[in-house]
């Protein structure tokens, strides 16, 4: 649409099914490159991507033509197929659901650094503690019976 201007930044988190540590160091960079390309192909701007062997974080400048849920569905579907075709031969799946939090432009440097330092961060903090803190900061009620099985989409 002509004369449409947006500034939509989303921090998206999703985990490996059952939070198994299946993302191997040997191919994590290839996975991140694949996800980056999938974002670009959908007209989104990937600002940061990081994670650990059991989950990923993305900071995305969203194109307004696609919803967060549609983007995450495509990223998870395409990347799990690619992982299975290339490395794990049918044994990889992402956990149901995700978490997504909106941020203002002024907070992007801090969020970007946080995502880039995920490996160091998780030497001190568990994934569960991280999720609880993200929910707390967003003012969302944390329900472990749901949040740890599958994330709920959230904006905050």
Descriptive overview:
The chain has one domain: 2-Layer Sandwich (Alpha-Beta Plaits). It starts with 8 loop residues before the first strand and ends in a 9-residue tail after the last helix. Residues 151-156 have low confidence and may be disordered. α1 runs antiparallel to α2 (68-88). The relative contact order is 0.20. Helix content is 41%, strand content 17%. The chain is of the alpha+beta class and 156 residues long. The protein contains six helices and four strands; from the N terminus they run βαββαβαααα. It has helices at residues 28-41, 68-88, 108-116, 118-121, 127-138, 144-147; strands at 9-15, 45-52, 55-61, 99-103. The chain has a four-stranded antiparallel beta sheet with strand order 2-3-1-4, with helices on both faces. It is globular.
């Amino acid at each position: 649409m002509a004369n449409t201007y947006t500034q939509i930044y989303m921090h998206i988190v999703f985990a490996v099914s059952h939070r198994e540590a299946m993302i191997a160091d040997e191919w994590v960079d290839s996975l991140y490159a694949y996800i980056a390309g999938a974002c670009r192909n959908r007209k989104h701007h990937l600002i940061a991507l990081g994670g650990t062997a059991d989950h990923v974080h993305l900071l995305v400048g969203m194109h307004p033509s696609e919803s967060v849920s549609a983007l995450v569905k495509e990223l998870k579907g395409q990347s799990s197929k690619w992982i299975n075709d290339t490395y794990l031969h049918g044994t990889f799946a992402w956990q149901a659901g995700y978490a997504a939090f909106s941020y203002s432009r002024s907070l992007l440097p801090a969020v970007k650094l946080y995502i880039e330092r995920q490996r160091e961060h998780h030497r001190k903090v568990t994934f569960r503690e991280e999720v609880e803190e993200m929910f707390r900061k967003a003012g969302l009620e944390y329900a472990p019976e749901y949040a740890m099985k599958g994330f709920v989409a959230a904006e905050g």
